Hints:
Blueprint (H helix, E strand, L loop, with lengths): L3 E2 L1 H9 L8 E8 L14 H4 L14 E2 L4 E5 L4 E5 L3 E5 L5 E10 L11 E6 L9 E2 L4 E4 L7 E4 L2
Antiparallel strand pairs: 1-8, 2-3, 2-7, 4-5, 5-11, 6-10, 7-8, 7-9
Amino acid sequence: MSNLIFTKGLEQVQKNDCDWETGTIRMLLERDTSGYSPDIRDDYLDAFTSGGGVEISVASYARRTLTNCSVVVNKADDQIEFHCSNIAFGSLEAGQVVKSMMVYLQVGGDDSTPEDDVLLFYIDTDFNTMLPISLGGGAFNITVNGQGLVKFAQA
Length: 155
């Protein structure tokens, strides 16, 4: 598969309903044993949680809130870029493989209602030569380069 922006996420961007600077944008790590098959028409996080999705489950893992988020329209390269600060998951115990990263807009103040958390994008294509990656018991950090966490170009 390749990186994708979910239709509902794109709708949020188009309508400017997703406040990238003050909204709660979160990331989870999908495990390689997951049975989730992403569909661009999946709207809410419960498509993952009730659709066979398996998250990394080592003891020190927790979803992360992205900071300094913004959307940049790069007209010169005909693409939309999603920017944020680097993401630190801390030291994650060895023994599992990260298959993908999912980014969503948290609604309601916590992660207890995945049926209203809007899916934004799914990243499983090689990201800075790191995916898929086995957890090795050390720091798991995602470095966001100058072109953003993910970019979507017009074909």
